[in-house]
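Today's session is about reading a structure prediction critically. Students often jump straight to the picture, but the first step is always the sequence itself: look for stretches that repeat, for charged clusters, for runs of hydrophobic residues. Only then move on to the predicted structure, which in these notes is written as discrete structure tokens rather than atom positions. Here is the chain we will use throughout the hour.
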Amino acid sequence: MVRAILVPTSHLSPPQQHLLRELDLCDLPAPEAAPESYADRDLDTHEVRDVLPTLLWAGLVERRDGDGGSLQLTPVGAAALRAAQCDELMDRLSAVASFANTVSRGAAPRPAPPGMP
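Below is the predicted structure for this chain, in token form.
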């Protein structure tokens, strides 16, 4: 039997993506238990508390009760994070290709859109 994992295709907000990236590196204690762990990672605990219910509901993050309610990235969460990272890279590649196309035609290049290097 083949199992399919459905990857949420909705857009991740910057705070959601930041939290998922940090959880991809390691599990984190619950925000109320160790707010300093979040400050060390440049995460705002208020933002984390705001986005956490959605991430838990979507199955991207799970709370492990055995060790004080630590947060862990699920396989679906890892897949959603990779999809979001892929989308960002596709946007950058598209901008580079557009720039290269413009330059090859001899036209003056346009400034990069906001958020692009």
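Discussion point for the tutorial: The longest strand covers residues 61-64.
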